[in-house]
Amino acid sequence: MHRRHFLQLSLAAAASAGLAGCSRNEPLRTGVHPWIGYETLYLAEEFGWLPPTVRLSKGQTSRDSMHGILAGELDAAALTLDEVLRIQAGDVPVKVVAVADVSVGADMVMVRPEIDRLEALAGQSIGVDLAGVSGIMLFAVLERAGLRSDQVSIVNIPVNQHLEAWNEGAIDVSVCYQPTASRLGNAGAVRLFDSSQMPDTIFDVLVVTEKAERKQPSAVEDLVRGHFLGLRHLVRNMHDAVYRIATRQQITPETVREAMATVMLPELTANRRYLSPGGRVEIVAHRLGNILVREGLIEQSPDIANLCTRDYLPGSLS
Amino acid sequence: MSRGSLKLFLVLVMAVLAWAVPVAQANEPPGSVTLAVLSYRPEPVMQQRYAPLAHYLSERSGIQVKLAVLDQEAMTQAVATNQADFFLTNPSHFLVIRSERSLTGVLATLLRDWNGQGTGSIGGVIFTRASRDDISTLEDVEGASIATPGIHFMGGYQAPALELRSVDVDVRRNRNVIYLGNHDRVIRAVLAGDTDVGFVRTGILEERIEENPELADGLKIINKQNLRGYPFQVSTRLYPEWPLVSLPHVDSRVIRRIASALFALEPDHPAAKAAGLAGFSPPADYQSVEDLARTLRLAPYDQAPRVTWVDILHQYRGWVITVAVLFVSLVFTSLWLGRKRRQLAFEERRQRELIAGWPQPMLMMRGNELVDCNRASVDLLRYTSEASLLGKGLMAFSQDSQPDGQTSSQKLDSLLRRVQLGDTASTEWVFVRSDGSDVWVEMTLAPVYEHGFETPSVLCSWYDITLRKEAEERMRLAVQVFDNAREAIFITDAHGVVIDTNDAYRQITGRDGKEVIGNLPPMPVDEGSAILVAARKHGVWSGEFRSRSRDGSRLVLNLTLSSVFDDKQHLSHFVGVFSDITRLKESEKKLRTMAHYDALTGLPNRVLFAERLHQSMAQARRQKYQLGVIYIDLDEFKPVNDAFGHDAGDELLIEMGRRMRAVLREEDTLARLGGDEFAAIAVNVDGGMALEALLDRLLETVVEPAWVADHSVEVSVSVGYTLYPQPEELDADQLLRQADQAMYQAKRQGRNRYCRFSESMS
Description:
The complex is a heterodimer of chains A (about 325) and B (about 750).
Chain A: H1 3-23, E1 28-32, H2 39-46, E2 54-58, H3 62-71, E3 76-80, H4 81-89, E4 94-103, E5 107-111, E6 125-128, H5 133-145, E7 153-156, H6 162-168, E8 173-177, H7 180-186, E9 190-194, E10 203-209, H8 210-215, H9 217-236, H10 238-249, H11 253-261, E11 263-264, H12 268-275, H13 280-294
Parallel strand pairs in A: 1-2, 1-3, 6-7, 6-8
Antiparallel strand pairs in A: 3-10, 4-10, 4-11, 5-8, 5-9
Helix pairs in contact in A: 2-9, 4-13, 9-10, 10-11
Chain B: H1 3-24, E1 32-38, H2 43-61, E2 64-70, H3 72-80, E3 86-88, H4 91-100, E4 105-114, E5 117-119, E6 121-122, E7 124-129, E8 146-148, H5 154-166, E9 177-179, H6 183-192, E10 197-201, H7 204-211, H8 215-218, E11 219-222, E12 239-240, E13 243-246, H9 252-264, H10 270-275, E14 277-281, H11 287-296, H12 304-315, H13 317-357, E15 362-366, E16 369-373, H14 375-380, H15 408-420, E17 425-432, E18 438-448, E19 457-464, H16 466-484, E20 488-492, E21 498-501, H17 503-509, H18 513-516, H19 530-538, E22 540-548, E23 554-565, E24 571-580, H20 582-596, H21 606-623, E25 626-635, H22 637-644, H23 646-663, E26 669-674, E27 677-685, H24 688-703, E28 706-708, E29 711-713, E30 716-724, H25 732-748, E31 754-756
Parallel strand pairs in B: 1-2, 1-3, 8-9, 8-10, 30-31
Antiparallel strand pairs in B: 3-13, 4-5, 4-13, 4-14, 6-12, 7-10, 7-11, 15-16, 15-19, 17-18, 18-19, 20-21, 20-24, 22-23, 23-24, 25-27, 25-30, 26-27, 28-29
């Protein structure tokens, strides 16, 4: 170990001991909601791998986390990348500190059986929750189909309302995810497209506000570390994890396994790659930003340059 | 061919076939394989449960599968000796076996079934009798007696041990753990009250309760987990189920067939039902089991720690060596530094002691303050202790200005500045002692470069030059005296040759120093260099003598010549001091003259006459001749004085004196006794007759007229005389009195005559 490094570390340790005193008052309030990729944090909490410096604020949907961040009630959250950009455009600067998972098929486009190719989407009425990741999905699909958003009819409704709309005939296309997708499948829909056809695009990430990062950097480290410890249990002790997730989400272990099949869970090295300057997350964020601006979902392009940071990724998990 | 040889032949053929057949059958699967199953429950139970499975596998794969139910030791042994081809055991035991011999790996993982719910996960159950109220949480298990199937049981030991460890209950250190070999015995032990707590794997209790429903009430589960979708009660985390493992020696075709048979097993198949299985799934990841064993430091990871150290050392060899080298060099450097510092301290102490003990005053200054001084310096300034000096500057012991005119502070500053630049400065300085007296010193300031100080300290040494200064002062005065004295001073070498003269010398003698140096000084004519000898002998010679100045005029000098000796008492110089006493001498002579001669006539006076008379009498006695003492008185002098004045009278006296003097011989004395009385001594007369002839001439010369004050006067004298020696001894006074009386006789007889003394006159 370099002596200087050692010195730095010991100084940092001493300093952080002092700093820890500063931030001991307030834990890092982290917003989470049920999603297979964020189970790592729930598991970390269950097994005591989250120190008192991090407190999970369990919501129902991602909207709870988003509102919490924008209102300043949350210091960190687990959100999709487009949600992060919306927050950034909402004048709350945040930083992406870890990639929790990458969607591979979790998000899908369910269509009436007659619609057999992407181009056939033109003129269709598409049910989509523009406030969520499905919006991104849609625009990516349209882009791929060579269609503009004004060439289709967008019905902006939350995902849990899609089934009803389908049955009523209000929509012929639904951009959704489980369990809505399987329900629609039962109602006769077929899958035209899913996120597995656009890999490395839909990122679920952990973000912290810049303010929290400044005040409690060690707590951010604890959060990220806890996530990776939870991830390790999820992957290596899957035989245990599935049952715990099933219990928490009140679903069967099989459903848990199926859900796990729809996401990639990147480990530390993959994270480093994703979050590197000019890495995948930055590129995708840039594109997403453009899409969001173009579709009028946000007013101006958010600052991408300082969006990602690898500083809080642990060196190793001991 | 005989029967015996045929038999032999057949045996041989059999033997060959027996050997050859296995080889031939390399292309075809062998007849049978052995599946070893761990007897986690009693053997009959195991046989009952798993025989159908073996049968199924045999049918399905076309290879006969023989079932062998073995305990852990037997299974390990069988595996080691290749007597088993496949084995099915708990994951922990599997790890141990795997560490002992390399295996092809796991073929499949068991899926247990319970009432239609399948699971591929296994966990541990910690239970006690329901009546035990004292044991309800994990922490309560601390110190309790525990029954367990064995260390290498997943659910029956390792999983519970880890859970307990997370609440700091270390089962390994618990001495009340009994190892019973299978789960049934554990349940029995707990029920019987032999132990407080039992560890079994998941599913056992459910099977037993199914057989014996009352069991449910009699037992209590500790730390029960709530896991939705998991069919069994469990106290711990879950791990992958039992692996079914094939050994390396098994033919790959056999493996494939068995594997496919395994995966083809449906949950509703009787074989599955009998064994309580839902089937087999592809092999799970047993990393979690490895981590478990590692965390608990159980085999095969019980030896790990000891390896770790050496391992680390080996891995970081380079760093370790570098750090060790750096550390060693650090130690050496510290030692060397320490030694250098000690050396330095020693040197400094030596320096200090040297200064302290030095007999000459020595001080050390830093900045403007004295920081060190020795005894001698304290004594010089007449203080009692060093404390009086230290901390002060030199100015504290100096006057405001120095004798050379500079102000002390300015002079000191300029000196110190020079020293700071590296010069050594030397100067004279006056210090003030504690009693106020002055002391002259020669002060030398030198820079001393000391460790740890940027600017050099100043070493200051004093040399007491008071005596020298006083000597210089005296010298200066002496030079002043030499130069400015009215007396002439000359200095000669040991031989009397002049080496230096002063101004007065030149003034008196008219000779310059340059002319004189290298020559002898003025000395008396008759004695000459003898005076040097006398001066050497007696230390000093003094005397008066005549000399001549450069321009020839006569001088009288009175010289004092002193000899000067060096330290060794050798004569080194003469010093002569003389003054010009010429005038003095003349005055003396005049005075002497005045004392002895009559001012008017120039004749000897009464005093001289008396002297002469004495001398003549002495001479007459010695040389035996006669002398006549004559008393002469002028007749009728007073009328001349009255008639013509005193000046005329004086003229007359002078004339008469001259006439009479002319009559007398040279060796005779004529004196004026005073007024108009004269006396004379006639030496060496040949009787009264001869003398009277002289006196006749005297009378004749007086009677001649004299011209005084434009008048011619005539006077005469009355003379009385006596002769000496006489028969009776007389002194001068008596003689003169005789002559006097004879003179009166002459006067009474009518003046202008002479008369000899006779006794009748007295």
